[in-house]
Amino acid sequence: MGGSRQLIASWPLTVRVLGLQAGLGLVRLDGEPHGTSSLTSLGTWALCLVVLLAFQWVHSTPSLCGRLRKWRPLSLGLYAVCTFLPMFLWKAEWPGMAGFLAGTTAAGLTPRPGWAAFVLTAACSWATAQATEPHERDAWIALAATVVIGLVVRGALRDVRLTARVRAEILAMDRRARQEECERIGRELHDRFTNPLTAVTLKSETTRRSLPTQQERTRRQLRDIANLTREVLTELRATAGGYRKLSLRDELEYARRLLADTGVDVKVWNDVPVPDQAAAEVLAIAVREGVANVLRHSDASRCSIQVRQLFDGGTLLTIGNDGIRADGPEAIADGTGLRNLSLRAAGIGGTAQGTLLHKGWFTLTVTCPAPLTDRLQAMRAAATRLPGPAAPRPDEYERRA
What we know:
Structural class: alpha+beta
Shape: elongated
Order of helices and strands: HHHHHHHHHHEHEEHHEEHH
């Protein structure tokens, strides 16, 4: 798995973008735009370059973009100030820097605002070159450089985010494959060895009881064999059950980290302390399936995962994300993931369904009922709260249950 992570890493593209920006930024660190080669002016120019590289690194890293989503307009505004302010201070054009700003805004914002910011940045670059350069030809060269570099940077940043999303999807598929293999091993261990070991235990017990009383030594050895076989059988069942055990809390934490690494602003709420094992297994598989749908069938920028407790003691899981593609709902409905999840939920009395909402939002909803004892307690509590003589008595709920 380490080799696959290196093959699909997104940091080489980010390093290339930063290297290109640093190379173009060093073009004017020669004293020409300052009029003098003082250390103060060169240091100030270098400081501006470092600040621009820091902003570019933040907006070129998908995990940082997801965490700083609410501050993105402010950071892009500061990026623009740090790009054009040195040009006005030293009365000189900074070749190519506006192109990085244009490409970053076009890739970081939604299509319409992104392209509007791209055009505005190109116009500001042309106007700045008109004010600072003596020849009109230089202004048009600056405009062309801004447009070309902006398009290149936008494509590179989209490739960075696509690579991060593909990497996350491969990691999710690998985790699912390992879990399915563990479940298969658990089933094989249980099916192949528990029945023979149980038969050995029963035959040992039968033989020990049928021996005459004077053969105490043989009786004791058979008793030891039966006890040892029982211990092996108990450990084997525990091992097979451990392979199949899933943790809802671990799946939620893994989903949060995986989506955050791809630049998705993810929020996770879980107010259910510890659901029963059957419901926890179905909910864990539902979280895994929902994350796979987010990565595979959408260009999501926001995702919310909520685990709530219902009034009757059941559990409700809701996974919602934006950016669903046009063929996303049909692909999810035709796939086997949602169908298998529905069968698993129905096996414990629950439901699973996907719903397409407005503005490209898709929601996966899974409900799992509480065990019978919990539902009975919830109905008793509800019955005691109902006023008036028409309130059912708790013994009626017991009879219905």
